[in-house]
Amino acid sequence: MIKDIVEKQRKFYLSGATRSHSFRMEALTKLKQALQKNESLLVEAMQTDLNKSESESFLCEIGMVLDELKYHQKHLRAWMKERRIRPSKAQLPGKCFISPEPYGVTLIMAPWNYPVNLCFVPLIGAISAGNTAVLKPSAYARATSSAIAKVITDTFPPEYITVVEGGRQQNTALLEEKFDYIFFTGSPEVGRIVMAAAAKHLTPVTLELGGKSPVIVDETANIRLAAKRIAFGKVVNAGQTCIAPDYLLIHEQVKESFIKEFAKALAEFFPGAKMDPMCTIITPKHYERLKGLMAGEKILLGGKYDDTRRFIEPTLLDGITLASPIMQEEIFGPLLPILTFKELEECINVIRSLPRPLAFYLFSENPQTQRLFLEKISFGGGCINDTIMHFPNPRLPFGGVGNSGIGSYHGRHSFDTFTHYRSVFKQSTRFDMALRYMPYTKEKLKLIRKLLG
Ligand code: NAD
């Protein structure tokens, strides 16, 4: 059945139907209307899967998708244009240009944590660039997966865009097929499986992965804002965010005031300590894993949980070392382990001892410190004096490096990701330069040396 879907999409793609500007614009418009029409369906589904509030669903998911869509509609014509390039001397009197073409049949595999955003934002790129797409939402966000399937089925014919729902069996079957591009968002572990499967067909991939993203607070930082913005990064989606600050490295002098300000920020976010609007943990398996990471650690703040609804309070953990269980894996939950430092060099050593992170956050008022970390640390993207906020901007490429991913997307970068750029040289037939042809005489070589040397 999956074979059939791919074959039908390939046939449709090869018919050339997806290539025109008008077709792509129409598809973007249809998608926009479908999202607007089905907003409450999607919000309810995310509420079911993650207890995601309407505000958070709009702010982090539907609103961002619509913003990305608008940006593509505005710029698509310019992006699709062929670009003239200056010819080299050896090519004269010909012309050079770069000609974008779609890859063809694409596969988009999405995780459960931002199930709408991470399915539709890549899809917008695939549509803009003129591809067909098979979407594979995560089975963990079951309600959202079926809502997405409904939205897509009602909006597009399956030979153009379709959804395959399911778990392991469907994932494996999909990866056996030959796609022309695979866009995967998920864990580094599954990323390796996807890349190995893609390698069999030499299919190019984008891998949007995760990892442990550090946040540093030095002694010059505005502690009130640092605490508030870090708390926000850990509370949104209950910390189940690929770019959530994973662990905190804080200068020992400011640790106590940070803890106080963190508590104040939570009190502001949740008046009367009512945390009902906060997201819950996606599955019992993920919930038990997080409880396991807290067990036996010193809790400075929070630490309560509710088994009936898989809820965990935002929690600060103390006495953490690099050997602690919580430092061995991506946390992906509302727990923030605290490690202290005296010298910035210690932070650099800690971060370099771990795989390259997807995000990096620094809170410091010292421009030299800000520069130091940009020079010394490799990371996908990040913020100075904030967390997460480098994400919502279609003009900034979003992606990882090393263990946190390959490639990037958002806005123009999504169009580029789903596009193959052909280099074309168009030669004149009115004139033929003899220089390149044999026989190579001494005089010709002299001239060539003059031209190229
Ligand atoms: P995951 O890797 O378990 O799953 C991602 C997708 O792959 C899902 O659609 C899932 O059904 C599929 N999948 C799972 N096992 C598979 C297998 N063996 N073969 C083929 N496909 C398989 O990730 P997750 O738990 O859904 O999401 C959490 C991870 O994703 C975290 O590591 C997080 O950091 C990362 N993430 C990254 C980004 C980003 O933009 N870089 C965004 C969100 C999440």
Ligand kinds: nicotinamide-adenine-dinucleotide
Shape: globular
Strand content: 15-25%
Q: How would you name the oligomeric state of the polypeptide chains in this document?
A: single chain
Low-pLDDT residue intervals, each spanning 5 or more residues: none
Q: Could you tell me how far the N terminus lies from the C terminus, measured between alpha carbons in angstroms?
A: 59 Å
The gyration radius over C-alpha positions equals 25 Å
- CATH H-level homologous superfamily name of the largest domain: Aldehyde Dehydrogenase, Chain A, domain 1
Sheet with the most strands?
A: 7 strands, mixed
> Architecture of the largest domain in CATH?
3-Layer(aba) Sandwich
What's the CATH C level of the largest domain?
Alpha Beta
Task: Report strand order across the widest sheet.
Answer: 10-13-14-9-8-15-16
Helical stretch tally: 15
Helix content: 40-55%
Structural class: alpha/beta
Strands, total number: 18
Overall pLDDT metric:
97
Question: What is the CATH topology descriptor of the largest domain?
Answer: Aldehyde Dehydrogenase, Chain A, domain 1
- How many domains, as an integer? 2
